[in-house]
Amino acid sequence: MTELVFFTNQVIISGLVLGCIYALGAIGITLIFGILRFAHFAHSELMTGGAFIAFLLASAFAAWGIVTPIPTGFVVLPIAMVLAAILALGIDKGFYAPLRKRGAKPVTLLIASIGVTLMIQGLIRLFFGAGSYSFFEHEPKEVFRFDMAGIGSTRPLVITEPQVLMILVTVVSVLALHFFLTRSRLGKAMRAMADNADLAQVSGINTALVVRVTWIIAGALGCMAGTMLALDVTLKPDLAFNIILPIFAAAIVGGLGQAYGAIAGGLLIGFAETLAVFNWTMLLRPLNAILPDWMQLPATLALVPTEYKLTVAFLILVVTLLVRPTGIFKGASS
Amino acid sequence: MPLIELKHVVGGYGGAPILNGVNIAIEKTDIGVIVGPNGAGKSTTLKAIFGLLKVTGGTIDFGGENIANSLPDKLVPKGLSFVPQEKNVFTSMSVEENLEMGAFTRSDDFSQTMEWVYEMFPVLREKRRQPAGELSGGQRQMVAMGRALMSKPTLLMLDEPSAGLSPRYVIEIFETIQRVNKEGVGILMVEQNARQALAFASKGFVLASGQNRFTGTGAELIADPDVAKSFLGG
Q: By three-state DSSP, how is residue B116 classified?
């Protein structure tokens, strides 16, 4: 039983948290691709930038002596999301909208977004340096330990307070997004534009409004994902830049343009990465008792070393593209 | 005063103009049919009215104002609707959602209009929860027309509504167009099945090289030996 609890701690909880972060990031990428038809590389910087906005707000709260019952990072999250949405709108207006107006090709927008990535990363380094920060400098990170002796485990089930909140917040946001896309007029217009932009225009749908709403959602969810990642590990200027490739893989695996696909892809890659680096000996150790001496399990038995975690996302991506090129949820192929 | 009147419309996609002075006038009670050879500027005329390409000369009067170069999100609330020839449904969305998108510019309750569309196309009511992409070609054309009717237009423009349909559906779609017209919606359409469409058209326009070649009632054009010889295949 100890082994199973260890597995839950190391794989189920970690995989779920990582999957949530990937999913929230991938939703933004997939929505932008669906509406504007380009791969928005700077999405990582919306995430990192959003996390720094949340960090500034949290620090301000701490400086004013405001004590919150849950981690301050979560309390300031709604404000940070609004600010990040405004940042996303500003980036679009400043960089991508002028290019779209001149009829730029998707690849031009892609290159522009790489430029935006470098620029925002540079700005963050300019103001915050290259070091890392913690949301928990002024408050403790609460860790819940559930004694599992009842089921015969010597190890407790461990989950941190931010992790619990993260999973809750993700579930709530995904549900909210689902109802927005399937029930509201604007949400349906977004799906319509992703489906057939010309027909959406012909129907009289205000496409400029749909574009703005897309950036608002992408910016807000990106900020949420970035802040969560910073709460789970530490905040640094290359926070989300390091995981932009698995996030893209999640969006593509799920089917570009498909919001539900991004969620499925995010969770799939999150779990796959955690399973791949998990030390299986920890789970299979009891077998040593029945295995003959020459077949004893090695001390570490992981599919890939931790440093190669990123390759897992690519492996899944390559397999998906070979088996089902449009992704799990049949997204756009171009 | 006609519902819509195009006077010497010149326009194109930026290069050499495709329309070189098109004149069209349609009353509310009319079914206007534009025919002509490939590349004559038939579809282009509809797109020019709907603001999908640049009009560089002439005027398009609709509802007492010149609407040349207005964009669809301004034109739809004014009572203009357009059914493109291809890709005219949201394939991933249900039939009902397709209809709702047609009513996007309306802020009032559109449930009665939807009821009206379902009465016109009963098969759509049956399939209202199904993605439009799963329907047959003829049913898709109904969804496309239904979507365009949801904004309660006074003028419905259709770009080759019978293209790619089986003969049975061609007759059905043409009958539906006449029914819509009887309900008080002016029709302006482009057709390849020229003879069949002119048979019920109250106004016919033969275009060639972006200009009017012949104008008259549908019956007059069919009877005209020149039109028949050059444009209706003898």
A: helix
Dump pLDDT digits (tens) for A285-334.
788 888 888 878 787 788 888 888 888 888 999 998 898 888 888 766 43
Tell me whether residues A199 and B50 touch, CB distance under 8 A: no
CA distance A269 to A86: 30
Give the pLDDT confidence of A214-260 residue by residue, as tens digits: 999 999 999 999 999 999 989 999 999 999 999 999 999 999 888 89
- Measured CA to CA, the distance from residue A35 to residue A195 in angstroms comes to 8
Which positions ≥6 away from A263 have C-beta within 8 Å? A23, A26, A27, A174, A254
Lookup result for tokens 């291809």: B86
Name the minimum distance, in Å, from the CA of B68 to any CA of chain A: 15
User: Is this complex scored with an ipTM above 0.90?
Assistant: yes
CB B91 within 8 A of CB B131: yes
B203: contact with A, CB 8 A cutoff: no
Q: In chain B, what is the straight-line distance between the N-terminal and C-terminal CA atoms, in Å?
A: 36
Of the candidates A198, A203, A207, the beta carbon closest to that of B101 is on: A203
Tell me which residue of A84, A26, A25 sits closest to A52, measured CA to CA: A84
How far is Cα B59 from Cα B19, in angstroms, rounded to an integer? 13
Please list, in sequence order, all residues whose beta carbon lies within 8 angstroms of the beta carbon of residue A153, skipping any fewer than 6 positions away.
A1, A2, A4, A5
* Rounded-to-integer distance, Cα A166 and Cα A256, Å: 25
Give alpha helix (H) positions in B121-217.
Answer: 122-126, 137-149, 167-182, 194-198
Q: How many other C-beta atoms lie within 10 A of the C-beta of residue A233?
A: 12
- Residue B185 CB partners (closer than 8 Å, separation 6+): B28, B149, B153, B154, B155, B156
In the block, which residue shows the tokens 């444009």? Answer: B231
Ranges of beta strands (E only) in A148-190 are: 157-160
Residue B24 phi/psi, 5° resolution? Answer: -145, 135
Calpha distance A111→A280 (Å, rounded): 41
The sign one gets for the Cα dihedral A187, A190, A192, A194 is negative
